[in-house]
Please model this.
Amino acid sequence: MAHNFSNEELKKYQSEFSESKFWDKMKKAAKSAGKKVIEMALLLFYVLQSPDVPIAQKTIIIGALGYLILPVDLIPDFIPILGFTNDAAALAAALKTINSSITPEIEAKAKAKADELF
Model:
């Protein structure tokens, strides 16, 4: 289930994103979100850091990461099992869109950080 954000939603979720909020979420939600969700988020985060990524892709990434950071969304994160399902769908949709910008180095960095968090 992919989630395509409207421009209004995208702006709302982008306003939720900051690097410090991202790392807070990674540390607090790692176990409950699961390694796959965390690794997808890390892939997006590290692609965002790349200077070669087009601004349109960065906009999508910031929207998806903002959605992840937002504690109350379509399915609130605190709901067991289902809480991160919609976040995973948003991250997967963003990853599909920016897939061409994921390098082997970024994949390795995301995997290493996910392993560190778990």
